[in-house]
Amino acid sequence: MITITDLNFSYTGKKPYLLSEINLNVPQGAYISIVGNNGCGKSTLLRLILKFMLPTHGSIRINASRIGYVPQKKDTDSAFPITVKEVIHSYGRILHLHSIDVRSILSVTGMESQAEELVGNLSGGQYQRMLIARALMGNPDLLILDEPSTGVDVSSQKEIYAVLHRLNTEQRLTILAVEHNLYAAARYSSMLYHIANGHGHLCTPQHYLDEYMTREGSFHA
Ligand SMILES: Nc1ncnc2c1ncn2[C@@H]1O[C@H](COP(=O)(O)OP(=O)(O)OP(=O)(O)O)[C@@H](O)[C@H]1O
Fold first, then answer.
1. CB contact at 8 A, 144 and 51
2. Beta bridge partners of 60
3. Cβ 42 vs Cβ 85: under 8 Å
4. Whether residue 72 has its Cβ less than 6 Å from ligand 1
5. I need a surface site. Which of 56, 60, 158, 195 has the fewest CB within 10 A?
6. pLDDT per residue over 167-220, tens digit each?
């Protein structure tokens, strides 16, 4: 679904590269979490995949009919006076959807009873579940998320990952997520893509736990 070939990237367009010799294949139905230390280039890689920027060298091919995107919470404005229902309607207009069933859209992430709520009154977990419901409008075959559980309490994290797990295993939705929650990455991903020193390595959750966690520090649930 995503094929990245010999990608190099720096914000200056010159060496040293932030991302170097990146080769990654995300097959249909996979759930891949991108992990690595702060500043290693995880979000940069997502922005390249989303075509917000171009690689310095190399190519990214995407074979998806529609991509759903859940941005980092800090990149969204939860103070804007708009209800959950209005968020769904306005996104439907952007997608040129003719009829919108707000209740059924929100029910995918268990948010139907918050439809009339102002987004500023939602908890971190509810807000994130609203963004996931919005990203699923128009039936994407690829869902990209940037830190889906950052700033979300543990019980809401469980709800978010239950939704993502269900979408991936039952509906075969391909998921690519930048992940700081290493417990969730190891528990729910089919594979992890670990970035360190500009280079990426695809590994199984077990391999990541065995090889990297001991070197990179403690395990956060
Ligand atoms: N627009 C930009 N212009 C120049 N440098 C940038 C830009 N955006 C990010 N960077 C730098 O690129 C590096 C990688 O940033 P990026 O956000 O991709 O890292 P990350 O792995 O997602 O980090 P974190 O885990 O902290 O979110 C950082 O040193 C950051 O300061």
1. no
2. 4
3. no
4. no
5. 158
6. 999 999 999 999 998 888 899 999 999 999 999 999 998 888 887 666 655 544
18 Cβ closer than 6 Å to some ligand 1 atom: yes
Is the CB of residue 11 below 6 angstroms from any atom belonging to ligand 1?
yes
Contact 89, 100 (CB under 8 A): yes
Q: Give the domains, in start order, of the chain with CATH numbers.
A: 2-76+139-216 (3.40.50.300)
Tell how far the Cα of 59 is from the centroid of ligand 1, in angstroms: 20
pLDDT at 216: 56
Residue type, 142: L
Q: What is the DSSP letter of 9?
A: E
Residue 10, ligand 1, Cβ within 6 A: no
How does 190-214 read in b/e, with b if 16+ C-beta sit within 10 Å? bbbbbbeebbbeebebeebbeebee
Weakly modelled stretches of the chain, pLDDT under 70:
74-78, 212-221
Instruction: Among 10, 17, 18, say which to mutate for ligand 1: greatest number of ligand atoms within 8 Å of CB.
Output: 18
CB of 194 sitting under 6 A from ligand 1: no
Question: Which pTM does this prediction carry?
Answer: 0.91
**What separation in angstroms does the CA of 209 have from each of 47, 72, 185, 219?**
26, 25, 10, 9
Q: How far is CA 220 from CA 48, 54, 216, in A?
A: 28, 33, 12
